[in-house]
Amino acid sequence: MIKVLFVCLGNICRSPIAEATFREIVKQKGLADKIECDSAGTAGYHIGQLPDHRTMKNAEKHGLKLTHKGRKISLTDLDDFNHIVVMDEQNFEDVYELYYKTKHQPPAAEKVFLLRDHDPETRGIKEVPDPYYESEPFFEEVYQIVWRSNEVLVEHLIDKYHLLATD
């Protein structure tokens, strides 16, 4: 089983929608028995809470129901997940530092990376913008970014692990 963890700051906006879109793409490709995912935050601000209501509203508009409850990334996540996919540079640094302090070596580029490393429309921008302090239309922009990035990420994992859909 390939395990992917999506990480942002509070685990209520970007990482839950990244988790949900990734899960949907994996399901559509018939790979739910081969790839699983979760999400977490680098901060513990929203542990146990559902995602931001605007994230949930946007997800529902696209046929996704979010039930994830916020949690903070743990030391066991570093071993439990094959890939830790981070939304922005600051949280990438936080995850990288946590990994380095725990493992006494830097993570491999395939272990910890930015989601937009897989965005076909990145235009040099490497971060998924945080919509928390923005209006509802900004949540749609974030959805579009994570959807297209996850489409490419899933294809990358299919190639990397030589995965075939279940017939």
From TrEMBL:
<dbReference type="InterPro" id="IPR050438">
    <property type="entry name" value="LMW_PTPase"/>
</dbReference>
<dbReference type="InterPro" id="IPR023485">
    <property type="entry name" value="Ptyr_pPase"/>
</dbReference>
<protein>
    <recommendedName>
        <fullName>protein-tyrosine-phosphatase</fullName>
        <ecNumber>3.1.3.48</ecNumber>
    </recommendedName>
</protein>
<feature type="domain" description="Phosphotyrosine protein phosphatase I">
    <location>
        <begin position="2"/>
        <end position="156"/>
    </location>
</feature>
<dbReference type="Pfam" id="PF01451">
    <property type="entry name" value="LMWPc"/>
</dbReference>
<keyword id="KW-0378">Hydrolase</keyword>
<keyword id="KW-0904">Protein phosphatase</keyword>
<dbReference type="InterPro" id="IPR017867">
    <property type="entry name" value="Tyr_phospatase_low_mol_wt"/>
</dbReference>
<comment type="similarity">
    <text>Belongs to the low molecular weight phosphotyrosine protein phosphatase family.</text>
</comment>
<dbReference type="InterPro" id="IPR036196">
    <property type="entry name" value="Ptyr_pPase_sf"/>
</dbReference>
